[in-house]
Design brief:
Elements (H helix, E strand, L loop, with lengths): L2 E9 L3 H11 L3 E8 L4 E7 L6 E7 L7 H4 E8 L2 H10 L13 E5 L5 E6 L20
Parallel strand pairs: 1-4, 5-7
Antiparallel strand pairs: 1-5, 2-3, 3-4, 6-7
Length: 140
């Protein structure tokens, strides 16, 4: 099994100020951006260089304010076999909050309540039981 640290996600209500902070202040580069009209959000990524672990800024287009308690989103790790990792985690008592039904993504929480996203490296895996038919078991 291999694992690669990908990013940490932070919610922002000020994407322009955040952009200036991460680029001019910290010297990071903007590596990519995804805007979802349907979901009404933007995902903006920064890193020291392309391919390095990133800071993901999530900007929801509504006017919600965030506190320090809900501003931090999650850590993300790329894994070589998402089903194997989830099976291993489950065998040590970790609850899979968002099972990898699609062979691509799962969410768990660490013992401190930190949300962790697991992403399948490369192409998504074919659906596999029992994961394909599992329901979400909590919020992530």
């Amino acid at each position: 099994m291999t694992i690669k640290y990908l990013h940490a996600m932070i919610r922002t209500t000020a994407p322009e100020e955040s952009h200036r902070f991460y680029t001019e202040g910290l010297g990071l580069i903007k590596t990519r951006q995804y805007d979802s009209e349907a979901g009404q959000f933007s995902l903006i990524y920064y890193a020291v260089e392309q391919g390095a672990p990133e800071v993901e800024l999530t900007h929801n287009w509504d006017d919600r304010n965030y506190s320090n308690g809900d501003q931090f989103g999650h850590l993300a790790f790329e894994v070589s076999d998402i089903y194997q990792v989830c099976e291993t985690l489950q065998s040590i008592g970790v609850t899979i909050l968002r099972p990898p039904r699609d062979g691509h993504m799962a969410f768990i929480k660490d013992p401190n309540g930190i949300s962790i996203e697991l992403l399948q490296a490369g192409e998504r895996l074919a659906p596999k039981e029992p994961w394909a038919s599992m329901e979400n078991t909590g919020s992530w």
